[in-house]
Amino acid sequence: MMGVMTSQLPLPMAMDAGAVPIGLAVSLVEDETGGRAFVHGELSYAWDVGDTATRRFTAAKLADIKAASVAEISAAFGVDPGTLWRWRQVLAMDGVLGLAPEKPGPRGPSRLTESMMSEIRALRSTGLPLRAVGAKVGVSEFTVRRTLAMETAAQEPATAHPSRQDPEAGPVITEPAEGLPVLPAAADRSGERAWARTGLLECAAPAFAPAARVPLAGLFLALPALVNTGLLECAKEVFGALPNGFYGLDTILTGAVFQALAGEPRAEGITRIDPVAMGRVLGLDRAPEVKTLRRKTAALAGTGRAGELLTAMATRHLNGSGDEEGGGLAAVLYVDGHVRAYQGTRKIGKVHSTRLKFPVPATEETWVADGHGSPVLVVMAEPGVLGVALFDGGLVMAGDDTGFVCRVLL
Fold first, then answer.
1. Is the alpha carbon torsion for 86, 88, 93, 98 positive or negative?
2. Among 69, 334, 362, 372, which is 20 to 30 Å from 81 by CA?
3. Which of 56, 34, 37, 140 is nearest to 100 (CA)?
């Protein structure tokens, strides 16, 4: 009679019943005698009580070999992920001795001498990275940063040329211009807001006052590019205007662009930006709130004219300045399909991601660019489904599943 082969039981993560699991392969035991780390049930690292360097070494090596995630390892060792990342950097640069805690009490003389500081500045002036400079001199990257910061602080801000400032140093603060207030009070818009609540105000016009310093003033540099895209002009042609209120169509669209450039592209991100500072660059007393942005955006989406806006902007881009109709203008477009992973809460279909190598909830987009690689429009559909589409502006596209090149007659 043929016997039945039994499968071998999996190895335990640790032989100690009181071990704390770290992920699926590691377990940690810490008691009055020290600590031990087991990998797939085998003792891999051990340290005595008070041996801080070896304990940090164990955490860093577990992260290096990817035995568990950084979050799981840092939580098991009672530190934040940033501390664990710093331990790994110190271990790679200075070895296990660099993980030893500093001795309390008065410190000895500094190792950083004038000759070493001069050598650091000379090496940095050649364009070497901070870590390479520290390796050549025999100091840490933090010491190199501190030396360069000391040199920057010793210089006069008025004589330093902006193009020659060290990228690791902080910004140079200049004195306010003579005769201009640093930040004047915003114009009183209470009357306009009262009219807006009654629905008698179409929109509040922007008003700016001269100032020496304005937070987020760098966003003004994006205005020429915003005008060149034709977003505001095409939006007026397609949507006309928003319902009467304090914030008009131009303000909502310009604020959305500024918000995205400030690193907060979602509506909720406006809560992480100073509303007064954002209002100053919009020419108002404050930026709109999240509920206002959602209401205004919903009003635009409810018209169902998003495709018309894309078509108008694409036609304007392909016609050059957009001032003259490009009769019979032929252009070559480059069209490609992209998969964008979806991080929301709704249930949508899965699409194979070439980056992740497995299907994930995602949307398929068709990106259209002109012959110079500049963007023309984006369609929320895969190229094969897109087929042949005729837009109001005369844009004709034909495609397949892999991306294609088509001709456009305007």
1. positive
2. 362
3. 56
